[in-house]
Amino acid sequence: MISAEAILNARILIVEDDRVSRKLLAGILASAGFLNIRMMPNASRIHAIYSRFQPHLLILDLNLPGMDGFKVMQHLRETHPDDYLPVLVISAEDEARVHLRALAAGAKDFLSKPYDRPKVLLRCRNLIEVRLLYKELHAKNNELETRIRERTKELRDSRLDVIRRLGYAAECRDSDTGHHIVRMSRYCACLARAMGMTDEECELVLASTPLHDIGKIAVPDRILLKPGALTPEEWGVMKTHAWIGGEILSGGDSPFLKMAETITRTHHERWDGSGYPLGLKGREIPMVGRICAVCDVFDALTSERPYKKAWSVEDAVKEIRKMSGMHFDPDVVEVFIAILPEIRAIKRDVDILARQVSRELKRTPQDTGSV
Question: Nearest-CA neighbor of 23 among 12, 14, 34?
C-alpha cells in the first residue's frame, strides 16, 4: 500500500499553454498538500525536463502550440519504451474520438475544462498511486533478477569448479600438475575467438576444454605412466581415451556437455584423415576439434615431460607449421601463428602461476607426526 506521504511527495509536471489553467491546476494540487509541482507553457524542452524531473504524473494539454499533446506522448513512448507513462490529458473537447485517440497515444485518464476540484485530485491521486506501485514492483523485479543472476553465477561457478577438478584428476595421472589444462583451455578460447566463433561459443570452449583428456581415467597406469616408448598394442589402448572420454560425456542435453563431448572425441583427429578415433578428414572434423588439436600439440611440445625437455616456442611453431595440411587445418595454423603474441602471454601467465604454486607447496610444513 502506498502511503499518503509518498503520494503527496510525488513529482507532478504540468504542460499547459494557458497561464490561467496552468496556475489553477497547480493551486488545486498545492492546496491539497502536493509538494513537487513543476509547470511548462509548451513542450519544446519536454524530453530533457521529463528525463531529469522523472515525474510520477504528467498533466498534458492536447492542444499545445508547436508539439501538441499527441506528439509529446508519441515522443515519450519512443524515448521511454519500457516505462509506464503516467499521462493525464487536458482536453476541452469531450468527443469520443478524441478520447480514443488519446488513449491509443498513451493517455491514462482525462481532465475536462472547467476543472472540478474533487475530480482533479481523485484522478491525480489514482494515477500517482499506480505509478508508485509500478516503480515499487519494478524495483522488486530488478532485485529479484539480480539475486537470480547471482545465484546462477554461483551455480555456474560451482559446476565449472567440479569440471576443472575432474579435468585435473585425469591430467594429474600422467603429469605433475594440472597446468596443462589451464593453458589448453585459454589457448583454445583465444584461438576460437580469432577464428570467428561467438563470445558464447568461446565461453563454452574455455569451460569444456579441461575435460578433453577425461578418458585417460580408463587407461591403465602401466601404459599411461610408462617412461619409455609404447608398443603398438599399448598405443592402441592409449588411443581409446578419446573415444572413452566422448562416451563418458555423451547423452547430455546442455550446450556445454555437447561441446565437451565434441572436443574430447575429435581433438586427436588429423586433417589428412590419419588421426583417431574416427579417422575424420579435413572439414569433417568439427572446428573445435581442429582448434584443440593445434593447441594440444603446442602445449605438449613446449612443456617438460619425464621423457623429454620442453621445446622453445619458436621450435614448436616450426613443427606445427611443418605439420600444416597433414596433422592440422592450414587455416587454423595460420591464425594460431597470427595470434602468437597472445598465446605467449597466456603461457607466461600460467607458467608464473605454476611456479608460485610450486614455491608455496615447498614452503608448506610436512606433517611428520604419527597417527
Answer: 14
